[in-house]
Amino acid sequence: MYRDLFAVFAVATALASTALPSASCAEEEQQESWRLFVADHSLPVVHAIDLASGRQIGRFDLEGYAALSLSETGRTVFAVQGEENVVHAIDTGIALSDHGEHRDIEVTPPKLVGATIKGEKPGHVVTHGDDVAIFYDRTHRFDLLKESSLLQEKPEPKAIDTVAAHHGVAVPMGNHLLVSVPNMQAAVKEGELPPRLGLRVLDRNGRQIGDVAPCTGLHGEATSARLVAFGCEEGVLVARPGGADGPKLEMLAYGASLPQGKVSTLLGGRSMQFFLGNYGEDKVVLIDPDSTEAPYRVIDLPTRRVDFVLDPAKFQNAYILTEDGRLHLLDTVKGEIARSETVTEPYSKDGHWRDPRPRLAVAGDDIVITDPRRSLIRLVSSETLKQSRAIPVDGQPFGLVAAGGSGARH
């Protein structure tokens, strides 16, 4: 009898345990939410747009024209107003949190953070985890702060010396900081800033560790997995984790087999470790930092490049818009253009570098393209490269970031 009762109890327990996940799943809803943050070309305003409905869900008036930068967490859009010496932060209202086997998503209205960060001509803003580094071109410092504190409107920026004012960058990397070095021996005209000659490693108190690594004309940086890369005239400088002694810096020289050119803009792969960079105006280059034989693969474009972006979810996809108005799907594994379609009218690269031209972002299965001449945001399928719909926007939509993702909503 006890054996029979035990068998019944075991079956009942098994049935109850298998029912528990279903009950848990009933309490949560899978949701995907994307928001676009669009800066106007000439007006001091950023529009927040819900991608699904196309509705404007926020308008944020600033002090000047803003370049937009999205934090690594996707929680914050930095509106960098270099001419006004200020950086505003916009809370995207989308928070993704990892729970091992799944992610949770929390969606709230976007809002302009009350606290601002000020400095002489802010330029590059780089985030890594909760760290934010804001570099100022016209003074010899950058600020290091926590994104979480900024969103709580209690930022406590720590100023770290950069030797001299220059158009540079600072990148948090674990317990260290990677900071550009100005060439103080270079002859510069009055009012101009000195060029960059290399990169140095600092600890969190601003003390230098080791020697300066040469990187002539340093410009462009990106993170992929645990690596950080910088564009230089002689190659791409890669920083690898190195323990207590700080990151290890290695130069990937271009080599004689490559055509004339250099990398000055970099993007980093997320789910696969690689970098994509420009190589002059009509080429891009795939960079394998672990290849000792041939780290570079150069891809020719039909015309000059207007903008390019990596797909964060589909590691084999990169999208490149050229001045003839065509969008190209670059297969990053094969190193070749897989498909091309016309998506806008031509936008010439001639003229001022900040003339209104389209910009790209990726939001789920959509490639998002600003079209400032037509006051439109165009949504293009990442599968077909065909336009699926367009969202009208007041003014001249220019700078663009997409924030969002999918997760369980409890």
Automatic annotation (TrEMBL):
The keyword Signal applies. It comes from the Bacteria. Keywords: Signal. Residues 1-26 form the signal peptide. This is Metallochaperone AztD. It comes from Rhizobium mesosinicum. The gene is aztD.
